[in-house]
Amino acid sequence: METLRSLLRRAGGERPSRHSYTIYRNVEGPGGEGTGGLELKVVEREEQTLAGDMAALVVPGPQDRTKALTYVVLSALLIFTVAFLLGYVALRGSCPSCAGLRGDLLAMASDEGAAEESPGPGPPLYWADLKEMFQKYLREESIESTIRWVSEGPHCPGSPRMDALTHKVLESFASYRLDQAWTDTHYVGLQRPDRMNPNFLHQLDPQGGVLEKLPLEDPEMYCPYSAPGNATGGLVYANYGRQEDFDALGQKGVNPQGHLVIVRVGEISYAEKVANADTAQARGVLIYPDPWDIPQDPRKAGLSQNRAVYGHVHMGTGDPYTPGFPSFNHTQFPPIQSSGLPRIPVHPISASTAARLLSKLTGLAAPRDWKGRLADVPYRLGPGDPGVRVHLQVNNVKTPTMISNVFGCIEGRFEPDHYVIIGAQRDALGPGAAGSGVGTALLLELARTFSAMVRNGFQLRRTLLFASWDAEDFGRVGSTEWLEGYLSMLHLKAVAYISLDNAVLGDDKFYAKTSPLLTSLIENVLKQVDSPNRSGQTLYEQVTFPDRAPHSQPAAPAPPSPAGAPHSRPTAPAGAPHSLFFPSPQDARPYPFLHTQDDTYENLNGLLFGRLPAVAKSVAEVVGQLLIRLSHDHLLPLDFGAYGDVLLQRIAEFNPYSSELKSRGLTLQWMYSARGDYTRAAEKLRQDIYSSEEKNERLNRMHNVRIMRVEFYFLSPYVAAPETPFRHVLLGRGPHTLRALLEHLRLLREAPGRFDEGQFRRQLALATWTLQGAANALSGEVWDIDINF
User: Fold this and answer.
1) What does the pLDDT look like over 628-667, one tens digit per residue?
2) CA 264, 267, 270: angle at the middle one, nearest 5?
3) How far is CA 211 from the centre of its chain?
4) Which of 61, 89, 127, 283 measures 20 to 30 Å from 500, CA to CA?
5) H or E stretch covering 51
6) What residues does the Transferrin receptor-like dimerisation domain cover (predicted)?
7) 8 A C-beta contact, residue 190 and residue 477
8) Residues 334 and 458 reside in one and the same domain
9) What would the mean pLDDT of 381-394 be, rounded to a whole number?
10) Can you give the pTM of this predicted structure?
11) Mean per-residue pLDDT, 294-305
């Protein structure tokens, strides 16, 4: 190399410096190998070290110069070839563009500012590497053992067994060496049966005497938040207790006013059934599982006809005695309670008790599609003459209870303030194998697996937050209280919420109830997970999306939930995309033992023919791959353009009423304009991302913030969170939603006298401006907004 240096100087006719020399040395390549190339460094040199060189230097002539140039060219070519080969060998595994695998490579994030503060990243990991790593550390036997010990018996909030389970989960998070593990304690009001004064149900004779004491088989099977007191009257059969069912009774001349109604489990939540009965001025409600909806042949793993199904009846979530406020011990609670608490008593009954009552009903025959499968029951509407009179007494009492949510987190390296939240219910009034056992087992196993991956080279970009919720069977109390405590910050930090509740419900038909932002990502993940019981198939080939079926597969409704509708989305008020997975029977019937005392490991495993651990592991693989993408990708893999199609579909439902709107000087033009602005904003953001530099961390973060807040953009700013927690204009519930607007518009044809034009105009204006606000927010900074509204 010293000869090369001399030749270079001679070729240029340059005299060497008396105060410098050149050092050549190998430079370490990736992985610490010394083959990464050569480094040239000019260093000050003492004059005496050059004495020998100075004596040997001669000013070159033309011929020498020609020779020197020849040597230079040949030496340069040789060095370039060697350096190129060495560089190719050392770096060929980390060049996405050379390998042609940019779409499959999950490259380690780099940040110029962070590089000086922490060691440089290791070799980049490809998608196949990460999947292999995840599967390597995932343990099916761990999932199975956790389901068993969680479901050994009831573990209701505040019980000694629940306390032991709380400590067990916290200790598990700590033993997995997560970055943080802690509990969040709340003081809530739960409703319990009065052991000294139990609830009862009597059948009365026409004079009011007790004709028969009807059994309420299990004192632990009740409806939390039922109004206490008694209800006496005739009995009316109201099918599922939906609003259309009560409308049908009115059309047939059957009035529930002053009577109790008996309704079936399914279709809508318990709380909605009770609210509809209250609106119809009924005095009380009895809820039973009909064999048409829930199989009830114990020989075929069905529910016993002597079992009732419990469920809360609060029309809302969280502690109903502190609505909108977090139930921390230091919180000053206002003297109010939730408007969603029922005003009439309600109680679950078994199918056998329901059959004894319904078999004695007289009056008009029920419509054909109202008839279930109770033996020897004619399914009449009642109350008839003389009819059946019943007396229901509910003595539930409010009980102050301390509950504890348990958390563990693995902090992200580059966006630690952005959280991907994974949650599961921990409590159950019964054994809760499907209700809380599977979810808790998956939560712990995912936490352990990801912690092991991080210790072995996997680097998270965003934080994974694992949450084990308490008091969820009482209406998502634990998750809602935590959300209310941190609502002002979570809408800025929550990337997505993945629910593990009811993840395995006794069959291999796979359902995914999810935000439109996550649908495409989930579809891609499902294509990469093999079916646990169908050789040669992926889970994608068995999936049904309740809101949007993939490709040619027919859409199917989500399985009915006895306990409530919005419970699957605890972070919905914060505007975070959500997803819920649950395998379920193809005919959309619910798991027969859910929310009963028969929800045991043996029954759940029996329905799966001994494949419960394998099915649960498949769910863990789906969720795990989803978490890898959400926590690792430079840009969040959320389909922010999907809401453009959803908006078009929802607005198109108003088109049949265009003549009614036009006659009142109203038009849908502004809604379509808002949808157009949203679509253009989404396309502009997509182009900005495509044209930006992938390693520009500042731009990546700006784009991610806009993407992760898309769900939040659709929360109506015109309603208050305490009164209307589900503020989403498309997926929420309340008068601010497009669904409520459409139902109000239908009154013009079905019941013109109930149509309120002033209220409708206000609803239409606020909904339109909510959509326009979402389009404006997606556009970015105020100077980037280019709307045509």
Assistant:
1) 999 999 999 999 999 999 999 999 999 999 888 888 888 8
2) 65
3) 50
4) 127
5) helix 51-56
6) 667-778
7) yes
8) no
9) 87
10) 0.80
11) 75
Query: What confidence tier does 524 reach under pLDDT thresholds 50, 70, 90?
Result: confident
What are 185's strand-pairing partners? 404
Report the pLDDT averaged over residues 691-710: 88
Question: How far apart are the C-alpha atoms of 279 and 272, rounded to whole Å?
Answer: 10
Query: In three state form, how does the secondary structure of 398-441 look?
Result: EEEEEEEEEEEEECCCCEEEEEEEEEEECCECCCCHHHHHHHHH
pLDDT of residue 42: 41
Identify the CA nearest to 466 among candidates 479, 481, 456. 479
Which tokens sit at 727? 């503020």
Mean pLDDT value of segment 239-247:
95
Q: With CA atoms as reference, report the closest residue to 648 among 667, 685, 684, 673.
A: 673
Under 8 Å between Cβ of 494 and 573: no
3-class secondary structure, 730 = coil
| Structure letter (DSSP) for residue 88 | H
State the residue range of the domain holding 584: 130-176+402-632
φ and ψ of 212, to 5 deg: -160, 140
Residue 769 CB burial class (10 angstroms; 0-12, 13-18, ≥19): middle
Residue 75 has pLDDT above 90, yes or no: no
**611 burial class (0-12, 13-18, 19+ CB within 10 angstroms)?**
middle
- Reported as a pLDDT band with limits 50, 70 and 90, residue 731 is confident
CATH code for the domain of 604: 3.40.630.10
- Residues facing residue 25 across a β-bridge: 39
> Where a domain ends, among 94, 119, 146?
94
